[in-house]
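Quick one, probably user error.
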């Protein structure tokens, strides 16, 4: 913020050094992966598809269904523990090296901005003019708009699939106003993120910076300023009593969140190493050794030996290995089909003209076998009545989920306190057979009322 309370726009000066070059390689690889994943298939499914309306989440060819709550929670737990483990060991490497916000901002949007507006100085001059209608800035926004459309459409492909997205794009907006609105809003949010909010997304919206207070300890690697070596800071040629910091401000000018790394570990620092490259270049020019700002730990800066093995670096990996083991065991022992029994969408039961009670049982079958299957259904415990199964055996394509219905008709006398227990047997005639218990509903009492009388 400026002194008058207005926003101080951060226009970082690029520091092209060793760390920047390494991050550039990682960033471009991640960009290609992000753009390619919706178009890559495994086991006949998109590599990643988060189909929330159908409550199906596909990761690397495996689809998590609503019945896979445990598996899905284990998967999320693995991801969270990975973040915790890497943070404890290497600091905020995710923020500086892998976060899409950082990757696209620093290696696509900012370079385009500097190219169009005339470098960092050109951007600052346009800021001072107070005009957002400057021709160069309008051209930048136009390019940003195109990029926002590409990124937003790719993002939506993770949720609806590339094929469905292609249908949306090629159809008239009049034919699908809802999906068009979703695309429009998503594109607008991406545009505003990279053109306006920028570092505020990291410093205000993202909770990761606040988490670091509990995720980091004195032994965690961070990007830090060597206070003992750098102080006291001093400009000029007479440096007999000065530290190595020449108070040039290069580390502040290059910081994408506008902080001074010399003030110590801060929530806003995303460990992008820009200040490291900037400071190393200055140290080279004045003949001092590199590393005044570097990857280190607070433990080392205070003169202590770094302890790699400590409670959190043991507990996190052990817990992570445990979750991965349980997850692998759950998937390895998962049946070739998931059977879910559902009640009728209408009344729980109905009474036929002949007095028999009819229950509709909906059977949802998820075929995980990788091959088309024919599932034969039968009922155990309904010998006193009649079972009607319209489609039997019931075909389900590989990696698909289908729902069928069957009807059980029983005399009123078969119900005890409004319930009658049965078992549904499902087999594919090959490797899969299971029986599931199910309670049919009926009238309570001799009069056939659907509710119990008050005592």
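Nope, works fine. Designed sequence:
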């Amino acid at each position: 913020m400026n002194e008058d309370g207005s926003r101080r726009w951060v226009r970082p000066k690029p520091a092209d050094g060793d760390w920047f070059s390494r991050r550039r390689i990682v960033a471009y690889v991640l960009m290609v992966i992000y753009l390619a994943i919706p178009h890559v298939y495994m086991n006949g499914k998109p590599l990643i598809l988060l189909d929330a309306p159908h409550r199906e989440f596909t990761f690397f060819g495996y689809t998590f269904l609503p019945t896979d709550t445990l598996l899905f929670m284990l998967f999320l737990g693995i991801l969270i523990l990975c973040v915790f483990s890497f943070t404890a060991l290497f600091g905020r490497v995710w923020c500086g090296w892998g976060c899409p916000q950082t990757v696209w901002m620093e290696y696509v949007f900012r370079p385009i901005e500097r190219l169009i507006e005339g470098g960092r100085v050109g951007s600052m001059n346009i800021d001072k003019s107070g005009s957002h209608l400057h021709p160069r800035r309008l051209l930048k926004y136009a390019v940003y708009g195109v990029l926002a459309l590409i990124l937003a459409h790719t993002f939506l492909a993770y949720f609806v699939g590339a094929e469905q997205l292609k249908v949306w794009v090629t159809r008239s907006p009049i034919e699908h106003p809802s999906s068009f609105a979703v695309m429009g809003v998503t594109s607008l949010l991406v545009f505003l993120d990279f053109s306006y909010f920028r570092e505020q997304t990291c410093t205000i919206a993202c909770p990761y910076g606040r988490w670091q207070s509990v995720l980091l300890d004195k032994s965690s690697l961070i990007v830090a300023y060597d206070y003992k070596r750098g102080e006291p800071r001093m400009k000029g040629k007479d440096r007999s009593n000065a530290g190595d910091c020449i108070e040039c401000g290069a580390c502040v000018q290059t910081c994408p969140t506008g902080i001074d790394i010399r003030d110590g570990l801060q929530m806003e620092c995303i460990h992008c190493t820009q200040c490291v490259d900037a400071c190393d270049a200055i140290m080279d020019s004045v003949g001092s050794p590199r590393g005044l700002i570097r990857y280190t730990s607070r433990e080392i800066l205070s003169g202590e030996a770094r302890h790699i093995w400590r409670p959190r670096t043991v507990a996190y990996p052990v817990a992570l290995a445990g979750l991965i083991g349980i997850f692998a065991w759950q998937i390895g022992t998962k049946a070739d089909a998931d059977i879910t029994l559902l009640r009728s969408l209408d009344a729980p039961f109905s009474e036929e003209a002949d007095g028999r009670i009819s229950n509709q049982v909906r059977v949802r079958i998820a075929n995980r076998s990788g091959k088309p299957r024919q599932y034969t259904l039968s009922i155990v415990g309904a010998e006193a009545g009649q079972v009607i199964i319209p489609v039997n055996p019931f075909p389900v394509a590989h990696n698909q989920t289908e729902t069928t219905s069957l009807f059980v008709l029983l005399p009123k006398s078969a119900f005890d306190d409004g319930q009658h227990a049965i078992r549904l047997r499902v087999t594919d005639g090959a490797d899969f057979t299971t029986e599931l218990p199910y309670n049919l509903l009926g009238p309570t009492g001799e009069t056939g009322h659907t509710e119990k009388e008050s005592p």
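Residues 447-455 have pLDDT under 50 and may be disordered.
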